[in-house]
Amino acid sequence: MLTLYADSNYVWGLIFIPTGDDEGHVEHIYREKTDRRILRKNPWRDYRLHLTVLGLVFIAEMIGTITIPIAKNVAITIMPLIYTIILGLVFYLAKPIKWIQRKQARIAEGAMMLFIGVLIAKLAVSSGQSINLIFDMGPALILQELGHLATILVLPIALLLGFKKESIGMTNSIGREPNVAVVVDKYGFNSPQSRGVFAIFIIGTVIGTIFISFLVTLSLSFLPLHPYAFAMASGVGSASMNAAAIGPTLAAFPGLETSIEAFAGFSNLLSFCIGIYIVIFIAIPLTEKLYNWLEPKIGRDPIVQKKEDE
Amino acid sequence: MPDLIDGSENVSVHGILNWIILLVIFSIITVIGNYIGYKHPMTDSLVGMGILSLITLVGVWLERELPFNVSSILYISIIGIVLAFPGMPTSKFVLHYVSKVELLSIVTVFLAYVGIGMGKSWDEFKALGWRAIVITILVIAATYYGAAIVAHIVLVATGVPAV
User: Fold this and answer.
1) Given A23, A203, A209, B85, which is the most exposed site by the fewest CB atoms within 10 A?
2) Which residues does chain A have within 8 Å of residue B61's beta carbon, measured at their own beta carbons?
3) Which residue of A has its CA nearest to B126?
4) A133: distance to nearest CA of chain B, Å?
5) Who among B69, B84, B136 is closest to A27 (CB)?
6) What residues in A contact B4, CB-CB < 8 Å?
7) Where are the domains of chain A?
8) How does the average pLDDT of chain A come out, rounded?
């Protein structure tokens, strides 16, 4: 598990994380890793990696968006962004492709950290353009951050599946980088709570973007919610999941692109600025209370395998 | 915990050059994708990507140079918002060119790097059981629906018309 954390995936830095005196610098881990990969090596020299990405993008954009109707008024939209993420993973895993290996994955990860900035800049420009709209929608934007507390509702299911204290780490938040840092900071690196959040982090890394893209696509067909509500909800606090969630939302409401980008970007920014405090001061205490109350009632025999303890 | 060094070292010229070259590579790939997918003229979108790259560069540089413990995300967001602010002398220029770069073109390229990068987590992913996968899926869905439903209720309650 130690190497797992050191190898942690694409990374957002942290905004104003209060750290204990002795435990400090958790928030620097990601930046350090990126700096080592980008600043001290020459990541651009791996031209085959970038040519591969160009090839993937070319294929994806040529195929374009595919819409599969599955019922009346319900359709699944598969966008180029899904092709590139899946093809990227396939290229890494496929044995015959020798030029995309662990080393290239590390470079891709480091480069990605920088490219998040471009994504954020684009969203920020849309936000600046629509700043009046954002002020008008202020209450909704801020209150929807509290909606993320809904993850705690998953705690009983985690207990029924046999998780113990891991469930506190698993269900207090969406389990991305800032949340991992908060949980590790609070419970310690080798605690069951940290194991739980690591598990969510790894699985979220691998299936999160793809899953949320389909979730959003289906929700857009099924749920009669306000377009702005969909836009705000896509700011879940993860760059790639935010990106994957905006795609179908933009496609579903043509003509509203700028406002949707503005809300999605601003809501993601809020998730980073105040979302972290909601996790520290509300979500974690609430999850613990619920755990202490429910665990004696519905807790099962522990099922956590030994290999996860490593 | 391994790999734990406090890293407020100053960024060398060599490092900044690496950032610039990477951003140029990213811009070129995005512009090509943007052209294939949306037929936006390449020169305009290249200027747009240039602006976005510059904002990014200043943001990541400020994160490392300024003494505050603040993520570059915040700097980049503030710079982007201020440059595009209605009434700012820069806003017309910035909006014209940046609007030529579709968000989805950026996302498509970005997620290609994400896909390759996440391959590294594949073995760890396989080692985790189905129970953890179920919980992850439910947690992501809960976050999304929680925010969407609260936002919808507040929007309806404050009388924002459905567009």
Assistant:
1) A23
2) none
3) A203
4) 11
5) B69
6) 25, 28-29, 32
7) 2-309
8) 81
SS percent in chain A: helix, strand, coil, step 5: 70, 5, 25
Least reliable range by pLDDT among A7-16, A57-66, A78-87 = A7-16
Work out the end-to-end distance of chain B between its first and last CA atoms, rounded to an integer number of angstroms. 51
Task: Provide the token pair at A22.
Answer: 């002795």
DSSP-assigned letters across all residues of A6-61: HT--S----SS----SSS--GGGHHHHHHHHHHTSS-GGG-HHHHHHHHHHHHHHH
Q: What percent of chain A has pLDDT over 90?
A: 32
The distance of A96 to chain B (nearest Cα, Å) reads 15
Position with higher pLDDT, A248 vs A77: A248
Element of type H or E holding A237: none
What interface predicted TM-score (ipTM) does this complex get?
Answer: 0.87
Average pLDDT (A267-288) is 87
> Is A174 within 8 Å of B139 when comparing Cβ atoms?
yes
So what's the pLDDT on residue A189?
Answer: 78
To the nearest whole Å, the CA of A76 is away from the closest chain B CA by 17
SS3 letters for chain B?
CCCCCCCCCCCCHHHHHHHHHHHHHHHHHHHHHHHHHHCCCHHHHHHHHHHHHHHHHHHHHHHHHCCCCCCHHHHHHHHHHHHHCCCCCCHHHHHHHHCCCCHHHHHHHHHHHHHHHHHHHHHHHHHCCHHHHHHHHHHHHHHHHHHHHHHHHHHHHCCCCCC
Q: How many Å apart are CA A12 and CA A109, to the nearest integer?
A: 11
Q: Is the pLDDT of residue A97 over 60?
A: yes
For residue A69, give how far its alpha carbon lies from the nearest alpha carbon of chain B (Å): 22
First-to-last C-alpha distance (Å) of chain A: 6
